[in-house]
Design goal:
Elements: H1 8-24, H2 29-36, H3 40-47, H4 55-64, H5 71-80, H6 95-106, E1 109-114, H7 125-134, H8 139-158, E2 163-169, H9 170-174, H10 180-191, E3 197-202, E4 216-220, E5 229-234, E6 237-241, H11 244-259, H12 263-275
Parallel strand pairs: 1-2, 2-3
Antiparallel strand pairs: 1-4, 4-5, 5-6
Length: 286
């Protein structure tokens, strides 16, 4: 069964190619909009991959740019018109969050460094609920956030999962979200992660490392679909980085992977942390 990749990445790829074709044809956004009898804003959104393009619109654009080899672009157009699994939640999703869901769906490889909390694709449902309270979300928004997160996990891990590699800071294991039972369940999930998922732990004694500036994730895709993308999330919003910026992100993850415990050592380390978390109503072991 073919991997369901969603519309996000194909739209980005098609938009990038259409931008290059327009520039090669020596046309401005305004000139194309005039020929298409639409707004310049619409052409810009198509080129930025924010909206899909219909087959007649694509044909008109390719006529304007005098393009002969159309099949690859028509395939991207068709992929970009499909509905992502998250479309039923679209009214609740910010554009950047919807983009992340689309990127996850299309990725064949995920590599991430996380210094603060368990990554969303590895969280248990109780841990995810605890995070919504920590993030000061309302009960309604929190419940929906958890529902989307669990759906994300099912779609990513259940059918043709990507090769995933996570490096977690030691503090991620020890930052208590919810009660002891929630943390014990969450650490057990890390000991037995999803298929094709590898976890490393960066212990406190690796005091100096290039990941100190914050977490990041690198997504890779089938070669014909899109070049790799680095994703950085912060309180101010999300960033998607490519090309020159990507080299620095790769270097950060490569260095943290090299400094971290091996996957086997990491499992034993997590077991040690788990063993020191007592059931609720008892003091944790020192």
């Amino acid at each position: 069964m073919a991997k369901a990749i969603g519309p996000t990445v194909p739209r980005w790829q098609l938009g990038e190619r259409l931008t290059g074709l327009r520039e090669e044809a020596g046309m401005t956004l305004a000139e194309v909009a005039d020929e298409m009898d639409c707004s310049e804003w619409k052409i810009r959104r198509i080129e930025q991959g924010q909206v899909g393009v219909t087959r007649p619109e694509l044909r008109t654009l390719l006529d304007l740019y005098d393009v002969e080899d159309r099949e690859p672009l028509e395939e991207l157009q068709q992929l970009g018109r499909q509905r992502g699994w998250w479309s039923r939640y679209s009214r609740y999703l910010a554009p950047n969050h919807a983009n992340l869901l689309g990127i996850e769906s299309a990725a064949v490889s995920i590599r991430a460094w996380e210094p603060l909390v368990i990554p969303g694709l590895l969280q248990t449902e109780p841990y995810a609920r605890g995070l919504t309270r920590a993030n000061l979300q309302s009960d309604e928004d929190g419940a929906r956030s958890v529902e989307i997160k669990i759906a994300r996990q099912k779609l990513v891990w259940d059918d043709d999962p990507p090769a995933a590699w996570y490096v977690l800071d030691e503090s991620v294991l020890k930052r208590k979200i919810g009660d002891n039972a929630i943390m014990r369940e969450q650490l057990k999930r890390l000991i037995d992660p999803p298929n094709r998922c590898t976890i490393q732990i960066l212990p406190y004694d690796k005091a100096e490392h290039p990941g100190a500036a914050g977490g990041l994730t690198i997504f890779e895709f089938d070669q014909d679909l899109h070049s790799p993308i680095a994703y950085i999330e912060s309180q101010a919003g999300s960033l998607y980085l490519e090309e020159a910026e990507l080299d620095r992100c790769r270097s950060v993850i490569d260095h943290t992977m090299a400094l971290a415990l091996s996957p086997a050592e990491s499992v034993e380390f997590i077991r040690g942390v788990l063993g020191r978390i007592s059931p609720d109503h008892q003091e944790d072991k020192q």
